[in-house]
Every structure is written in structure tokens, then in C-alpha cells.
Amino acid sequence: MTAFGQLLLEPFQLAFMQRALAATVLVGLVCAVVGAFVVWKGLSFIGDALAHASFAGVAAAYVLGQSIYLGAAVAAVATALSITFLSRRARLSVDTVIGVLFAFAFSLGIVIMSRVRNYTGDLFGFIFGNVLGIGSSDLVVIAISGSVIVGVVLLLYKELFFVAFDPVMAEASGLPVAALQYSLLVLLGATVVVAMQAIGIILVVAMLVTPAATASMVTRRFHRIMLLGGALSTVASVAGLYLSYYANVPSGAAIVLVSTAMFLATLLVTNLGSRPRAAAAAAGVGLTAAEF
Amino acid sequence: MTTMSTATDETAPKLPRPPLGARPIVELTGVTAGYRGQSALDGISLALPGGCMVAVVGPNGSGKSTLLKLLLGLVVPWSGMVEVFGQTPRATRRRVGYVPQTGAGDWSFPVTVGEVVMMGRYGRLGLFSRPGRLDRMAVAAALEQVGMAEHMDEQVGELSGGQRQRVFLARALAQQPELLLLDEPLVGVDAVTEQDVYGLLAGLRDRGVTVLFTTHDLSTLADHFDLAVFLNRRVVAFGRPEDVVTEEHLRTAYGPRMSLVQIGGRFFAVDTGAHHD
Ligand SMILES: Nc1ncnc2c1ncn2[C@@H]1O[C@H](COP(=O)(O)OP(=O)(O)OP(=O)(O)O)[C@@H](O)[C@H]1O
Ligand SMILES: [Mg+2]
Predict the structure, then answer these.
(1) Would you state the pLDDT for residue A292?
(2) Is B103 in the pocket of ligand 1 (CB under 6 A)?
(3) Which of A64, A128, A167, B233 is the most exposed place for a label (fewest CB within 10 A)?
């Protein structure tokens, strides 16, 4: 065994690192599949909002002694519903309503938390991610919910794709457009909840957006954006965990840094080939990456 | 693909009059509909026979697009009754093809020409099932018919306006509908393609498809259509194109500036009050 081989193998001889690897790869794949819609339908703000809103659910579940995942899911779905409902009722743009609700739900989470005496460790893990603390039962939850999310996207792929491109024609063809649009939001909320513990509430949006955005610079076929995004996510997860292990930095942040590095490298390479189209796509999605 | 020209029009097969008492394909009875409290159509009644090509004409805002949307169930009537194939519009959507007036669709979305045309098959396929060989053949044939076969793998967002129109037409064709609703499908389409499209639609009509087609091109109505509906929030006239596009109807709908001018045996609707430079 070479010294280098030893360096590669060492981290994953530890059980908690194996669980961390499995969790981040699974989460990365789910995020890439849903992320293709997030990037191309401009859902990153709502994704971010659902992630922050789920924190209120996590805090409430913690206080009530209920399942954290259940609490987060309820909060995310309730927020998604309220956003749609309020933007229709108040005749305000969806963005505005998201801005109002997202801050409200996060504040609610903070208030609930401030009432708990020994909240430190666990709850902060959800905000910044705590993939190294993922237990076997968490992994089971991630695996099952992740498979359900990807399964639903695959089952409804052609309908979601049609509605994303042209909702009016989809309606004219007899597709249940409102139900499909709502399903996409629920899938997004579920993805955020699945990714929450592994990557942290604040960084979930990067998992949703960055790999799919990178893939979009390389291919313009929607299903390939999902596949390539999944591959990029997996690379980022593995490399990020190594970085986390050896440089002793938080794993969620390390994964996002690797993912962003791949985004920038792709941006550079596609621009060196002087393809204006790729450059335009990069400019459009670059904003999201610049937030980090 | 056949190319129709005015020279062959006299001999072009005209559809026999539908037998009296045949059930209409499309039937509207006293329909009033509109948007946000403003009516766009006021108590219109109309019955269209099957297997014919019908032009829908009228000024901007006269309710042509609204009529087509009523037949798809995209607009719900405030009062009156709409029936397509003797059923409610929602129940028959799968049998009805539609080319919306320009502007539908998200042009930045990553989708190829082939994928857009395949969407015409989705209604037929139903939830959960995947397109098969038959669907791919229908897509290829539809693209061939509109002359876009070689653009199959291109991004729709990178096509010209006229090419996009042709892709939308191909999507409606791939659906193999019994009723085809076309909302100004020739806007931005070049003259040669326009003739091809009319030839194509005549072929469909001869196979029993009913075609409803909105247009502002009044001068060639008689060349291509069996029937015409003149709308102006109400039905101003309905019948053979030559009986519908008359001086009197034009003035009723467009005001006193519109006139019919005869040039070389053909009639043109012109705005006699406008300055041309
Ligand atoms: N989505 C909408 N919301 C509100 N009003 C509408 C909408 N669509 C159409 N209208 C109104 O309904 C009336 C009829 O519109 P419609 O689109 O049916 O006209 P049209 O005959 O198709 O006109 P054009 O020749 O310009 O296409 C117009 O007065 C228009 O302002
Ligand atoms: Mg119109």
C-alpha cells in the first residue's frame, strides 16, 4: 500500500465517515435531479426559503420531542403552500411573499430555540450541517425519502418537463398543470428536508443550484443536466469529505467549496472555447454562486 | 408535400356540403365569456360541421383567440354552452390540437425541437408511460411535414420566429388530432412555407380533420377555406368566405376606412384611409 493510497483509504475506515459519505452522495444525487428544475425555473429563492422555514419545524419538533424530519417537512410544505396561496390572494409577486414568509419562519425558529435551555449542539448542526454526526437511522430516512423523491420525478418526468417549458400548452393537452406545479414545490420542500442534516439549512441551496448550473454549461439536454449534475455532486461530496477530514473544516462548507470550484473551472473552460451561449448561461446562474 | 397556388384553385377539390342534420363537431350556444369582468364574446352561437377548413377573422381584440380557448376549456364561459364532439371541452382535449398565438413557452428553457414535438404525444400517452417507437415515428413525420426534420436536435430557443411557429405546428400534427385549432399560425412564416402549410392542412381536411384557423389575411380566404366566421365580439357573419368577406361586413367590424378592392380577379381588403409611404 502506497502512502497516497493510505491517505485515500484512511478516512473511510471509520464508520461515521462511511455514513457521512453515503449520506452526502445520496443527498447530492437527489439535489441534482430536483436542482435541474430549480436552475431552469428560477426556484432557488423559494428553495432557500423552504430550507430556512424548515428550521422553525426543526425547533418546534425538538421542543415537542417529535421527529425532527417530520417537523421540518411540515414546516417546509406549509411554507410552500402559504407562498402560493398568499401570492395569489395579495396580488404580490411570488418573490415578495417569499421574502416575507422566509424571514418570519426563520425568526419563529430562533424564538422557539431561545426558549430551550440546552439547545447548542444539535440544533446548530441543522443550520450549518453535521454530516459526521449522522446515525444509521438518519441514513435510512435519507435513503428512503431520497428514493421516493427521485422516483416521483422519474415517474412524472415528462409531465414536469412539459409544464416547466409551457404550462399553457400542457393545460391545453389535458395535463393537471396546477397539481404538477404544486408537486414540484412539494418535491423541492422534501429535498430540502432530506439535505438538511447532511449539508445544513444555509447551504442547501448550493447543493440544489451549483451542480445543476455547472452541468447546464456543458449540456443543454434536460435529462443530461440531471445525470451530469448527479455526477458532479458525487465528486464534490467525496472531495469535500476528504477536505473536511484532512483540513479539519466543516464538511457541508467543504462540499460547497469543491462544488463551486468545479463551477468556476467549467465556466473558465467553456469560455476559453469562446462559446457565447455557455457564457450567457454562466452569467445567468453565476449570481447564485456569487452569494457564497 | 403539395404546394397550392392560386392557379390550381379552381380545380382544387371542394368539400361536399355536410349532410343536413349531421351533428356539428363544434357547437356554441349563447356563449358569453371574457376576462376579469370584461366580456370578450357576447352571446355567440355557432355550429361547425366536421371535416372542413374554417377561417376565423375579425379585428384585433374581436375574440378570435378567446373562441379557440373556449374550445380547449382554457377559458370557461360565463353563460351559454360549449360542446366539442358533443362533450365538454375539458373532456375532449386529447382529440384537439392547438397552436397558440405566438409567445407561449419559456424560450430560455433547455428543450430541443424533437422534445417539443414529442409533447404533442403526451396527452395520448397518459401519465407515467414513456414514448415508444410509434410516438417517435409520429414526431419524425410531423417534423418532416413542416420541413424541420434536420432541426430535430436543436434548441428551440435558438430558432427563428417562423421556425418556432413551424415547430408548434409540428407538435399539433404529431398529436394526430381530429380538431385542429390554429391561432394565427402563419405569422412570421415565409410565403413558400405558408403555401406548404395550406397544402398540408387541406390534406388533413380531406382525411376528415376539422381545422379552425384565425387569420388577418382576408384576401386569400376563398382560396383556402370552406367556411369563414367573422367575429367582432359577436358573430358578424358566418358562411362561405366570399359571402363573409363583404364590403358591408368589413365596414361593420373595422369601420368606414376598410374597403374591398378587386385586383386581377381577386379581392383585397384594404384600409383606404391610411397613408402609405
Ligand atoms: N389574458 C387576458 N386577460 C385579460 N383580458 C384579455 C386576455 N386575453 C384577451 N383579453 C381581452 O379580451 C378581448 C379579446 O381578446 P382576444 O385575444 O380573443 O382577441 P383576438 O381576436 O384574438 O385579437 P388579435 O387579433 O389581436 O389576436 C380583448 O379585448 C383583450 O383585451
Ligand atoms: Mg388572437
Answers:
(1) 31
(2) no
(3) A64
